[in-house]
Design a protein that fits this description.
The complex is a heterodimer. By secondary structure, chain A is α+β, with helices and mostly antiparallel strands. Chain A is built from ten helices and twelve strands. Chain A has a five-stranded antiparallel β-sheet with strand order 4-5-8-6-7. In chain A, strands 9-10-11-12 form a four-stranded antiparallel β-sheet, sandwiched between helices. Chain A has a three-stranded parallel β-sheet with strand order 1-3-2. Chain A is globular, with a radius of gyration of 19 Å. The N and C termini of chain A lie far apart (51 Å). Chain B is α+β, with helices and mostly antiparallel strands. Helices cover 35% and strands 15% of the residues of chain B. Chain B has a five-stranded mixed β-sheet with strand order 2-1-5-3-4, with helices on one face. The longest helix of chain B is centred in the C-terminal third of the chain and has 14 residues. Classes of the chains: A alpha+beta, B alpha+beta. Chains A and B meet through strand 1 and helix 4 of A and strand 4, helix 3 and helix 4 of B.
Chain lengths: 263, 150
């Protein structure tokens, strides 16, 4: 990788100005993108001195700074236990501890890495993301749209969560998922997301209300099948074809809903 | 650009390129325990500590190390030798290329986790890949190394 300049700004305003100066100026975050063969940056912008690695618990939401690492998500006891456990489970095979000290929340979101279990969970958590210039937007809007260059400051996860279920189908434990899903219960409402389709994750809004109240597995299966028939959700990649994903989506979602309704 | 930091508690100042990664810098400075495997963050052979946290030195710019405390295997030789004895007893190593990274990771784990379970150990060291010896012997060595402490 070629980097011509390295800067460590002392304010977000300065970092944003440098970022917008040239198209090949980039925030380096946790450094996962470094050393990718053939890549070239004019200026690498190190934002590690801007206090973006903090977790704050507010009355209505939990705010996680964009430089918080996956390892911090697993270990920082300031995080509500329900979130910490969910992040631990969903990121379990994301890499070793040393890699998890590099992977940042901001990097996982900004890259829109479509095979990420973490991104699907964030979507089900109804997370909002806060940019320096654009301000606060819904993660779902960010994933579907195109955005100009900006600096991700934090993600906000609304409170009142009583249950989180995540699941994924993989060919081996450490492989990328063929399909993943997450369900979150908040104030007796279900938030359901499916990802690795192989495109970015999406919420299954048409199913959420009905699946929340459907008590029997047969009922849920019918609802899921009908909804998936209506939608064109799945694509093909090296791991699976669209038709296969469509088939395994039903048992995956059923599994998630069974765990969701347990207890 | 000029960067100043501490390697194994020795303060140094060097000139490096803006895109130079810390693994390359450390090897140039003679810290050859730092092995470079994949350069993609997958193999874990280049594991060192920055301010006592294990990181991948192929994914860390030397410029980012300004003011930081870097620890390589050369800085923890006594502990490394002790753990190395357990690896030897289990006849774990073949080529040994991944061993420095593994040792740095296990010593970091010992500092971070109190009385880890087998599952916690596996979770912690999953980012250090070995392509010749396998993992069972390593697990035996690690468990025996940690056991006398607790």
């Amino acid at each position: 990788m070629i980097i011509e300049e390295y800067v460590k700004p002392t304010s977000l305003a300065e970092a944003y100005k440098i970022l917008c100066d040239r198209p090949d100026n980039r925030i380096i975050g946790g450094g996962i993108g470094l050393n990718r063969a053939g890549s070239h940056l004019h200026t690498a912008i190190d934002v590690s001195s801007l206090s973006l690695n903090r977790i704050q618990i507010g009355e209505e939401d939990t705010q996680i700074g964009s430089l918080v690492t996956f390892h911090m998500l697993e270990t920082d006891e300031i995080l509500p236990e329900i979130l910490r456990e969910a992040f631990f489970k969903t990121n379990y095979y994301a890499g070793g501890i040393q890699l998890k000290n590099h992977i940042t929340v901001g990097g996982a979101v900004v890259s829109k890495f479509s095979k990420s279990n973490f991104l699907t969970l964030l979507l089900a958590l109804d997370a909002k993301i806060v940019f320096y210039h654009k301000g606060e937007i819904l993660l779902s809007d960010y994933l579907q749209g195109r955005m100009e260059k900006d600096i991700l400051i934090a993600i906000k996860i609304p409170g009142d969560i009583t249950k989180i279920v995540t699941d994924a189908i993989t060919y081996s434990k450490k492989d990328y998922p063929v399909l993943n899903a997450a369900a979150v219960k908040r104030k007796n409402s279900l938030f359901l997301a499916i990802g690795a389709r192989p495109s970015y994750p999406i919420r299954l809004l048409g199913l959420e209300h009905d699946l929340e109240i459907a008590a029997k597995a047969e009922e849920r299966e019918l609802l899921i099948s009908e909804e998936l028939n209506k939608l064109d959700l799945f694509g093909s990649d090296i791991r699976a074809g669209a038709a296969y994903r469509r088939e395994i989506a039903v048992p995956l979602l059923l599994r998630v809903m069974e765990a969701y309704h347990e207890g | 650009m000029k960067v100043e930091f501490f390697i194994n508690e020795e303060q140094i100042a060097i000139e490096c390129g803006a895109g130079e990664c810390l693994a390359d810098t450390l090897r140039k400075l003679g810290y050859v325990s730092v092995k470079i495997g994949c350069r993609e963050g997958e193999c874990g052979t280049c594991t060192i500590w920055v301010d006592n946290a294990p990181i991948l030195s192929c994914k860390y710019l030397t410029a980012q190390a300004e003011g930081k405390h870097i620890t390589t295997l050369e800085g923890v030789q006594k502990e490394a030798e002790e753990f190395g004895g357990y690896l030897l007893d289990e006849a774990v190593e073949q080529c040994g290329f991944c061993t420095p990274g593994l040792i740095m990771l296990v010593l970091a784990m010992k500092r971070e986790l109190k009385d880890p379970t087998k599952e916690e150990i596996q979770h912690y060291i999953q980012g250090n890949l070995c392509r010749c010896s396998g993992y069972l012997g390593r697990m035996r060595a690690i468990e025996k190394y940690l056991k006398p402490q607790y």
